[in-house]
Design a protein that fits this description.
Elements (H helix, E strand, L loop, with lengths): L2 H15 L17 E4 L6 E4 L7 E7 L10 E11 L2 E12 L2 E12 L2 E11 L2 E9 L4 E8 L2 E10 L2 E7 L3 E3 L4 E3 L4 H8 L1
Antiparallel strand pairs: 1-2, 3-4, 4-5, 5-6, 6-7, 7-8, 8-9, 9-10, 10-11, 12-13
Organism: Roseicella aquatilis
Protein name: MORN repeat-containing protein
């Protein structure tokens, strides 16, 4: 072994150690907490949320770089699992920062290969913050601000030829005589307003 190789081996071992699994308290537990899963090929960490309890075979892949463990930069993250006999998949295309969606991107949800939900717009700390949300099977389209689990801020909901536009608050739009709710029960909007 050459002297240069002897000096490089400890450095290589140190670099490989940095790509170990994520800390136990930051790992995803389906149905319990969001967290990291590890890309089976490169050891990259990908942040995953919304995987239900009972999910089996949770796996992920990342097409971009991961200089310190978490996925970093532009790429494509694919998360798959089985749930109640169906194959589920989430595909994120865009920028990841420390393993989480950050900046412009698109997240597509598939059930047995069929697109069921798509979000395209801005992400911060792995949360969709606004853009276009679609449910292709129903033709529903929402465009506007988003906070955590629903419309928030100025937005427009189109469904079955009807358009509901205005300032949404946590999934609720006051339409004068009635509440329009999206991502939550309508009664909860009225209850919150009283």
């Amino acid at each position: 072994m050459t002297p240069a190789a002897r000096h490089l081996l400890p450095l290589l071992a140190l670099l490989l150690a940095a790509f170990g699994p994520p800390p136990e308290d930051q790992r995803a537990i389906p149905g319990e907490r969001n967290g990291f899963i590890t890309d089976g090929k490169g050891g990259c960490w990908i942040w995953v949320g919304g995987v239900p309890a009972g999910a089996e075979g949770l796996a992920g892949s990342w097409s971009g770089a991961c200089p310190e463990g978490p996925a970093e930069g532009e790429g494509r993250a694919v998360t798959t699992w089985r749930d109640k006999g169906a194959e589920r998949q989430m595909v994120y295309e865009g920028r990841l920062r420390r393993g989480k969606a950050e900046g412009p991107g698109r997240l597509s949800h598939y059930d047995d290969g069929r697109l069921v939900v798509q979000e395209e717009g801005e992400y911060r700390d792995d949360y969709f913050t606004g853009g276009r949300f679609t449910l292709p099977a129903t033709g529903l389209v929402y465009e506007g601000g988003w906070y955590r689990d629903g419309p928030h801020g100025q937005g427009r909901l189109s469904v079955e030829g009807k358009v509901f536009e205005g300032k949404w608050e946590l999934g609720c739009l006051n339409a004068g005589a009635a509440w329009i709710a999206f991502t939550r029960p309508p009664k909860s909007c009225a209850d919150e307003a009283t």
